[in-house]
Amino acid sequence: xxxxxxxxxxxxxxxxxxxxxxxxxxxxxxxxxxxxxxxxxxxxxxxxxxxxxxxxxxxxxxxxxxxxxxxxxxxxxxxxxxxxxxxxxxxxxxxxxxxxxxxxxxxxxxxxxxxxxxxxxxxxxxxxxxxxxxxxxxxxxxxxxxxxxxxxxxxxxxxxxxxxxxxxxxxxxxxxxxxxxxxxxxxxxxxx
Length: 192
Description:
Elements: H1 3-14, E1 23-28, H2 36-49, E2 54-58, H3 64-68, H4 80-85, E3 94-98, E4 101-104, H5 113-118, H6 126-137, E5 142-146, H7 153-161, E6 164-167, H8 173-191
Parallel strand pairs: 1-5, 1-6, 2-4, 2-5
Antiparallel strand pairs: 3-4
Helix pairs in contact: 1-2, 6-7
């Protein structure tokens, strides 16, 4: 079954009406190299081809999703500053040059956000606050958050902002241990 057919089946199962806020997915695993970015970009592209207005949020300081979409990593144009301030991300949304697909790029400065967020109040819900207006007012149906390969504050923010968590793993033994750790962290994060 092709990716487009799988996406079509999943979307029909979810039933995404136009009047609801966008559904947000965090694509996460604390292990690198398991296909998080590839899945995020491929799924975003497939949804866009199906006519589903989709936003990719690149939360990884390595900015691979940003690069995969052919965009430059520019300091001051990504998610870093709005994330720290908990402000609206609308002015950071960039066209991917593909119909129905937009991106909020990452930037190298985002690596410093882990330290800076830890000293702020409500540091786990900064991304959720920043995405709220985009979810409700911009006609998006799906938001895909590409998480970094850690369980730090950037990933925790993504988990708190997401309606659903997609955990990707490899068939190696280390990948399975990471799934348990991600599950435990997502449960604890949502409970707080």
